[in-house]
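Typical record is below.
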Amino acid sequence: MAIDPRGADLKRYLQEDPGGPVVMLNLLRFAEGGRESYARYAQALRETFLPRYGGEVLYAGEGGTPLVAEPGQDWDAVLLVRYPSREAFSRMVADQEYQQVTHFRTEALTEAVLQPTTAWDRG
């Protein structure tokens, strides 16, 4: 199962950039004991990397029993993180210091969805 974005994923992500801010939808499924490891990653993200790259957590919460979903489509946690641009997110994941803590996220998860979203035009 995919956990971390790869080079080809990031290249496509940047090529599809419509410009402006991006909100990353994170759907997380934890490994046994993974919540502790993810908490270490989340602390580094909040304290160091989000401020450095202009990101902010908009929402973080526990997943509940789905009302509408196929079997196996439930998630342990949901996270919404806003970045000023796709480029800011890409610079963050390429940061050498970030690379030293991202293993906490990788070790914590058995499966993840990391999906960029953009706001609908309200005009």
